[in-house]
Design brief:
The structure is a homodimer. Chain A is an alpha/beta fold. The first copy, chain A, contains twelve helices and eleven strands. In chain A, helix 8 packs across helix 9 and helix 8 crosses helix 11.
Chain lengths: ~400, ~400
């Protein structure tokens, strides 16, 4: 066991240059020999959690203990080798941080890595670590998974303890992780879900979410739909359904309202006191959040309740997995205009909010490429079916790669 | 004539540390021997005009020529010895710049200098230069004049050419200057207004703006009202009037709308392209500005037209000067909450918008102290009466100081 931090060559600007956080793994655990990185929202004792914003970092004290998830992984033998860059206070899904620079997308040069778990995705995709921790409130694991060609899970809401993590919107916050291969991905899952008695029942029913595929670029739908049919073959039964009687954009609108209100409540006092430097884009989201009325929140909550009921209906009829694109497109170019990113974020949120609003797990699989750029296929399951989703993904990969 | 920049000891953080702009004065001119500083919104050939924001500075080229006003002062013999810190893109009246630090108020330690011409006021109040250039769109010369105990003029709108200046809202923008003494102040005026045929008619009528004094803290009104009576004695006739049939806050509201729209229009493309780092407070103002509707602009323009008509009425009956407090209070403490500054800014804007909405000149005189802190008395005159206002101020000072 070594206690000195290994030197990491970081050609991708994935790691926080101003942190030397390092935790060796306990010998003998199931993850012994693996290295991982943690988005700079996870507490590591003795280090300030920076949250992707220099004023946040400057106005907070070092953490007194490790986040539960970090400690659990280290106890299981994995070595935490560094903190990674995040979008400011996790507000963003593209990964362009104006203070610390944008982590490189090793799979798509000249394009964003996705965010907000940008550095974690970059570090894994670039082979700097075996896996990495992120968080997902509105897509922050699923989007970079899709853009960087990785496995990434938004777990069932509430399943993994969030102690010691700088999060955003409690009723949407989850933590997740990235890996390049399904075997490593599954090993981490067994550790993080070890204390839970999760349902491992095999999925027997696939729903192809027509409205979700219609939101994606045609080339994305074209690339993913044959794979969805393979998933259907594995499960036995497949049907196409429209998830939202209104529109997925309207569903996403409810999350925008509720998540924004929660996000504003979580930092408004700090913002009022510190007057922090944010990118215009991030301030814009907070100002917009501040202006949301209680009546809008009530209406959105009623909308969210209806979404939960509708998705419960979709999941009736046996162990079901819903297939949808992880993102509407592959990674967009770096340096788009603020207004362009805003539009594209909302389009992607229409996909990610299905799991967000219902607390369901969603696993993004590096399934295909469009014009040489990775694109993720998502498996969305019932609450608590996280391990079953991962098992299905493994089965799919084995089958696709000809080993099945 | 020397061309090397003199070393400036700057204990007040008034000057831009990242600029070495310097222009020696032409020998033999009426301002020979005087030194001045220019807010970092005035072009100096070969230097990037930074505007108080590092991303503005990083995305702009060096100026190709000097601003008209800078060139005019240098031609008249004054030496430009440095650029001074400004609120970001002149958006603010308190002078707290999160990127470059807050210039010290030499007259009120622990308190803000006022803004947005913060560094210029600080440099003059601290005796680092003889005078300094600022700009005034919504109070950015008058407020720091009041807080730092200086003479400061918002000139008649349109009187001084604005070529080569990074401004904000064309229908409100003016440039002005600060000095510690009325003699220096007047020398600069004679140079800057030399090409104009300004009305020097002596004021014969003083209006005490009751609604303006009612907005000020009681101690401010108490300190200033005896001095107003002295001004009245000098002019011959004095009367108390309520300026606004609605309220000065409503008048200010019209300026908030119109100025905000113009300010947003002037930078929206740059913001959308660059996604600059601003303090939350500054982004907040731009986001709020972006959301202003055309209908709100139309209503505010109608309101502004009515203000112009009402103030024309007030000025009927001979050469008139309106007396009002320059600010509602002395300089507030450093580090107030964003929400507190917002409220206090609006209260001050109710005073400053009278001149702003009508294009009239307003001269702030370092008239009194409240609890040892400077507070300015303002003389608001008719359009083109700038030199007459300065003459009245000189007469007032001579009379007050016992030399009259």
């Amino acid at each position: 066991m070594t206690t000195s931090r290994p030197v990491i060559n970081d050609p991708y600007n994935a790691f926080c240059q101003d942190s030397d956080a390092f935790l060796p793994g306990e010998p003998g655990g199931p993850l012994e020999g693996l290295t991982f990185a943690a988005k700079d929202i996870f507490d590591v004792a003795g280090h300030v959690t920076g949250g992707g914003n220099p004023d946040w970092k400057a106005t907070h004290q070092p953490a007194s203990r490790n986040a539960w998830v970090v400690q659990t992984l280290v106890d299981a033998g994995a070595a935490m080798v560094g903190k990674t860059i995040t979008d400011e206070l996790t507000r963003g899904i593209f990964g362009e941080n104006v203070h610390y620079g944008t982590p490189v997308n090793p799979r798509a040069p000249g394009r964003v890595p996705g965010g907000s778990s940008s550095g974690s995705a970059s570090a894994v995709a670039g082979g700097l670590v075996d896996f990495a921790l992120g968080s997902d409130t509105g897509g922050s694991v699923r989007v970079p998974s899709s853009f960087c060609g990785l496995y990434g899970l938004r777990p069932t809401h509430g399943l993994i303890p969030l102690d010691g993590i700088l999060l955003q919107a409690p009723s949407y916050d989850t933590i997740g992780w990235f890996a390049r291969d399904i075997e490593t991905f599954a090993r981490v899952a067994e550790v993080l879900f070890a204390v839970k008695d999760l349902d491992r029942t095999r999925h027997t029913r696939v729903i192809i979410a027509r409205d979700a595929f219609e939101l994606a670029e045609p080339a994305v739908a074209e690339a993913l739909l044959p794979l969805v049919r393979q998933v259907g073959d594995l499960c036995g039964e497949a049907a196409t359904e429209v998830l939202s009687p209104q529109s997925l954009a309207e569903w996403s609108g409810h999350q925008q309202v509720l998540q924004s209100r929660e996000a504003w409540d979580s930092v408004k006092d700090w913002i009022d006191t510190v007057n922090p430097r944010f990118s215009f884009e991030v301030s814009d989201r907070y100002v917009t959040a501040r202006e949301i009325t209680d009546a809008q929140v009530d209406a959105a909550q009623a909308g969210r309740d209806a979404i939960v009921r509708r998705m419960d209906e979709v999941f009736e009829g046996g162990p079901t997995v819903v297939c949808l694109p992880s993102t509407v497109s592959p990674a967009p170019p770096l340096g788009q205009r603020v207004s362009e990113r805003h539009t594209l974020r909302l389009r992607n949120s229409a996909l990610t909010s299905v799991a967000g609003n219902t607390g369901r797990p969603q696993l993004s699989i590096p399934a295909a490429e469009v014009d040489g750029l990775p694109i993720g296929l998502s498996l969305l399951g019932n609450r608590g079916s996280d391990l079953a989703l991962i098992a299905l993904a493994r089965e799919f990969v084995l089958s696709r790669d000809g080993a099945g």
